[in-house]
Amino acid sequence: MTKVLVADDHAIVRAGISKIINDHPGMEVLDEASSGAEVLQLVGEKSYDIIILDINMPNISGLDALKQLQSIQPDTPVLILSMYPESQYATRTLKAGASGYLTKEAAPENLIEAIQKVKNGGRFITPELAEQLAFTFGKESRENPHEVLSDREYQVMCAIASGKSASEIARDLHLSVKTVSTYRTRILEKMEFENNAQLTHYVIKNNLLL
Q1: How confident is the model at residue 59, as a pLDDT?
Q2: pLDDT at residue 126, rounded to an integer
Q3: Residue 133: what pLDDT?
Q4: Which of 5, 133, 147, 151 is the most buried (most CB within 10 A)?
């Protein structure tokens, strides 16, 4: 029996994911978590065959939890299941140690396929992502400006470029408006931009948004 931990901050999403998994023979959702902190607590107490992790969660984000999981249970595969498109986060999460990346728009059979593949030691990526990665590695190995950003700064950058206000970003990322403003300042400084327009142009030009 494949024992699964499902982590997402929305109860209805967890319920849907759990039903898909529990309805498949040989798979069982052992526990659910609503935050990164809960994930780390559960993983410290139990062993799982696979962890399904959302990126955007309160307290400790999925990205931060992913990095900490590498030291707690490094051999446990982590499948990222996110609302964010592959172009934004797939490469970043795979570099951080994830075994696969799937968007929440994927069909239920894709989720089962992804679980089976990463549980058997493989990596799950879509053909579109494979092409994107091949193109990236085929280019000169110079660091892109956005790669100097922290994971949270990267999230805020993409949210700004998508046209969201500071209050909307704060709500979505479980931050204060003041903290969002601080992140924006850091982003502009690190990437040497003067305003949101330049930042948005960069994000669109580099296909970081769908």
Answers
A1: 80
A2: 80
A3: 66
A4: 5
d(CA 122, CA 105): 22
Q: Which stretches in the chain have pLDDT values below 50?
A: 140-142
Residue 167, exposed/middle/buried by CB under 10 A (0-12, 13-18, 19+)? exposed
Spatial contact of 119 and 77, defined as CB atoms under 8 Å apart: yes
Q: What pLDDT is recorded for position 51?
A: 97
Q: What is the CATH number of domain 145-205?
A: 1.10.10.10
- For every residue of the chain, DSSP letters joined together read -EEEEEE-S-HHHHHHHHHHHHTSTTEEEEEEESSHHHHHHHHHH---SEEEE-S--SSS-HHHHHHHHHHHSTTS-EEEEESS-HHHHHHHHHHTT-SEEEETTS-HHHHHHHHHHHHTT--B--HHHHHHHHHHHHS-----GGGGS-HHHHHHHHHHHTT--HHHHHHHHT--HHHHHHHHHHHHHHHT-SSHHHHHHHHHHTT---
Geometric angle at alpha carbon 165, from 98 and 206, rounded to 5°: 50
pLDDT at 210: 53
The domain ranges of the chain are 2-136, 145-205
* Third-level CATH fold of 2-136: Rossmann fold (3.40.50)
CA 44 to chain centre: 21
